[in-house]
From TrEMBL:
It comes from Anser brachyrhynchus. This is WD repeat domain 64. Keywords: Repeat. SUPFAM superfamilies: WD40 repeat-like (SSF50978). The keyword Repeat applies.
Length: 303
């Protein structure tokens, strides 16, 4: 065996243990990365500053992770995840809608089976009662600020403490309140359905006789025919609605859908009453969520 061959064999012998060690370290790194990514998706991961000197603040809310590397690069910062025990909600029931009411400092939630709960700013339940006893599931709710009551929608009805409007032509999936500056005494609601239509219903306390019906029992709730109401309807999406909200600062409504062509719509509330084109954009496979930040003047969407 030549001297050159001996040198190569010696180098190979020396490099094999180093290679095996490096391979083990790489495997550990891969496993750690996979675990970290899994925990991030579950909202369980907290960055270890000793492992990485980058000061990363990881906070979670509803399973989403927000991180910051440098303070000047912060765009959004969310609060830590908090679990709230809800003893009133029955087994196999789920929360379908959460509405924050900043000016009254409380949050309203409605469950799928019709339990309405109001939380104060400490997130402690101080008022909860069965809101809806029908077999149809609640799909969304919001607060009527002028009428001082909650309105909710099911698959075919619009319900309140004092009235039920039915039947609706399509299945209602979401609802939100619209209080316009030129109609402060009225509470309008917009609803999205499973056919891609948005519905605008103008509501007043006198119209529904809420002053007279506040003292009535649940068995005395008014049943109102939807055909007797002037409900404006316009098709915006080619698939079902996922969410609809109103931005009072912009006097605009916004809606999203799983529709790949008409995924997101943002326009003046007056567009619901005419046939003019609306402002929209498309996203492959549509959108599932969005939110608006008034301070930053940005809208964030999620597919």
């Amino acid at each position: 065996m030549s001297e050159k061959d001996c040198d190569n064999e010696s180098c190979s012998a020396l490099n094999v243990p180093d290679f095996k060690n490096a391979l083990k370290e790489f495997q550990k790194l891969v496993e750690k990365t996979v675990t970290q990514k899994t925990e991030e998706r579950l909202g369980l991961y907290i960055k270890d500053d000793d492992y990485d000197n980058n000061n990363l603040d990881a906070r979670t809310e509803c399973g989403a992770v927000s991180s910051q590397v440098q303070e000047e690069n912060i765009v959004f910062l969310v609060s830590e995840k908090q679990q709230i025990t809800h003893p009133v909600v029955k087994r196999r029931d789920v929360i379908k809608s959460i509405v924050e009411v900043p000016h009254l400092d409380f949050t309203v939630t409605s469950s799928q089976k019709g339990v309405l709960t109001i939380f104060n700013n400490q997130r402690k339940s101080f008022f909860s009662y069965p809101f809806h006893q029908d077999t149809a599931w609640i799909t969304g709710c919001d607060l009527l600020t002028q009428m001082e009551c909650v309105v909710a929608v099911t698959e075919r009805t619009i319900i309140n403490n004092c009235f039920i409007i039915k039947p609706m032509e399509n299945g209602l999936l979401c609802v939100c309140t619209v209080t316009m500056s030129d109609h402060l005494a009225d509470d309008n609601i917009i609803m999205g359905d499973d056919k891609g239509y948005v519905h605008l219903l103008k509501m007043t306390g006198d119209h529904f006789g809420l002053k007279q019906c506040k003292g009535k029992k649940e068995s005395q709730v008014q049943i109102l025919d939807s055909k007797n109401f002037n409900i404006v309807k316009r098709k915006l999406h080619d698939d079902w609605f996922v969410k609809v909200k109103y931005i009072s600062d912009l006097n605009c409504f916004r809606s999203c859908s799983s529709d790949s062509i008409h995924s997101f719509v943002l326009d003046d509330i007056k567009r619901l009453e005419d046939s003019l084109p609306v402002k929209e954009f498309s996203v492959p496979r549509g959108l599932n969520a969005f939110t608006y930040c008034g301070k930053a003047k940005v809208i964030v969407t999620g597919g």
